[in-house]
């Protein structure tokens, strides 16, 4: 029969297959995976808070040019038109595609901004040991939003659009696209640098005392 | 032989992954204060409802045009499949393949995949439970990528706007398509993958070689 685990702190449960496993000892930079279903159990990262702070702050600053500056434009027979991310949404609203406008706004602006803000706030708070109850809400929303950011998909959309437009008319590339690429890199790096396991353990310690 | 957390009366918080003893059907996580249960409540009915909703949206998404292209005042509407056919006509095979996979194969495959998963959560099957887990992982991973077409139409409608010369407008199909993608993502999210392993455990097993407390691999 299964022996009851000595302490709940020494075991991990796989979220995909529900297997109970003894907690593996890993070094920063290593990952622990489930032997049954190969899902990631947890990983330890190097300097998680410093890196997350830097990357998420850069991402937040890049948001303004990425949204407001024109990304791509076309010109043909003397007329020229260019559009930024926010223009895409405004035009959808003007043509009464409210649901689509909302979907685009939600997945390319609202969720990525809140996601980056949450990451930044958490990194700063944990780094300077200013952990409060409100941090729980932020980190929980960070988890929920993780699978709903679509900056990478939007970027592929821009690439496909460029490919389509090149045949139609002359194409110009604006500063918005460059900022967007950098923003995409920052937002991807945040998921790479932020160590969930580390943050939760820190918070648990801090909120217990 | 059961080594799963449910059988041991343990629960794993879906948010912060803390392992706790389950004292009630639903309880609050001591670390992140989120309330959760051993398995997502009514997981299958939620998944089923969202999948059906997505399936319903798939039909108008493919029948109605996604965008209307005006050249010199002449409108030309195209559905997803017509758009792909145009790309093939012009010999633009890479784009044709990307769009075909992203906006036709993937949405359909996701819906079929979800039905397969729901079926297997109820009974044991020929697919090994590991393969089912991978299928779930794929469905989950593909979720956001299907939004590609919606973004392309949004960008094209904003950029290609040269008045009488040529302009592009979004069309009805885009709303259904966007909703379909959101619904499949919600379906995947409400599906509790652990049910697949539960179904596996219910059928008589032949190999008892597994150790009680597996050692986790580290790499
Ligand atoms: Zn597992
Ligand atoms: Zn928790």
Automatic annotation (TrEMBL), chain A:
Pfam families: PqiA (PF04403). Keywords: Membrane, Transmembrane, Transmembrane helix. The chain crosses the membrane at residues 54-77, 97-124, 145-166, 172-194. InterPro entries: PqiA-like. The keyword Membrane applies. Signal peptide: none annotated. The keyword Membrane applies. This is Paraquat-inducible protein A.
From TrEMBL, chain B:
One of its GO terms (cellular component) is plasma membrane. Keywords: Cell inner membrane, Cell membrane, Membrane, Transmembrane, Transmembrane helix. It is found in: Cell inner membrane. It holds the Pfam family PqiA. The chain crosses the membrane at residues 48-72, 92-117, 138-164, 176-197. The keyword Cell membrane applies. PANTHER family: INTERMEMBRANE TRANSPORT PROTEIN PQIA, INTERMEMBRANE TRANSPORT PROTEIN PQIB-RELATED. This is Paraquat-inducible membrane protein A. It comes from Thalassotalea euphylliae.
């Amino acid at each position: 029969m299964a022996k009851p685990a000595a302490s709940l702190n020494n075991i991990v449960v796989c979220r995909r297959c529900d297997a109970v496993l003894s907690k593996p000892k890993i070094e920063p930079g290593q990952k622990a995976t489930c032997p049954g279903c190969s899902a990631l159990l947890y990983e330890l990262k190097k300097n998680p808070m410093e890196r997350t702070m830097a990357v998420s702050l850069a991402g937040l600053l890049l948001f303004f040019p990425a949204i407001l500056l024109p990304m791509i434009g076309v010109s043909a027979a003397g007329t020229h038109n260019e559009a930024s991310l926010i223009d895409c949404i405004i035009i959808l609203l003007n043509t009464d595609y409210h649901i689509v406008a909302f979907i685009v706004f939600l997945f390319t602006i609202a969720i990525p901004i809140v996601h980056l803000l949450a990451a930044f706030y958490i990194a700063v708070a944990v780094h300077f040991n200013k952990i409060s109850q409100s941090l729980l809400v932020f980190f929980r929303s960070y988890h929920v939003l993780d699978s709903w950011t679509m900056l990478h998909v939007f970027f592929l959309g821009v690439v496909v659009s460029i490919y389509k437009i090149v045949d139609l008319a002359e194409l110009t590339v604006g500063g918005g696209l460059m900022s967007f690429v950098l923003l995409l890199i920052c937002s991807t790096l945040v998921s790479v640098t932020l160590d969930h396991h580390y943050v939760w353990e820190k918070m648990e310690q801090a909120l217990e005392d | 032989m059961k080594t799963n957390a449910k059988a041991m009366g343990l629960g794993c918080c879906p948010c912060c992954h803390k392992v706790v003893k389950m004292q009630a059907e639903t309880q609050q996580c001591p670390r992140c204060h989120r309330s959760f249960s051993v398995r997502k409540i009514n997981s299958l009915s939620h998944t089923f409802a969202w999948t059906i909703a997505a399936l319903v949206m798939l039909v108008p998404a493919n029948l109605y045009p996604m965008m209307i292209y005006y050249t010199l005042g002449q409108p030309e509407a195209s559905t997803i499949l017509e758009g792909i056919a145009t790309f093939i006509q012009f010999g633009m095979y890479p784009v044709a393949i990307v769009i075909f996979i992203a906006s036709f194969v993937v949405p359909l495959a996701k819906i079929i995949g979800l039905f397969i998963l729901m079926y297997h959560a109820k009974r044991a099957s020929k697919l090994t439970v590991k393969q089912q887990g991978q299928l779930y992982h794929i469905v989950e991973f593909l979720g956001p990528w299907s939004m590609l077409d919606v973004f392309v139409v949004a960008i094209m409608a904003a950029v290609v706007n040269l008045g009488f010369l040529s302009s592009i407008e979004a069309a009805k199909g885009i709303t259904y398509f966007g909703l379909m993608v959101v619904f499949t993502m919600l379906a995947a999210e409400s599906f509790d993958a652990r049910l697949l392993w539960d179904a596996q455990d219910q059928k008589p097993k032949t190999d008892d070689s597994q150790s009680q407390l597996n050692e986790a691999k580290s790499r």
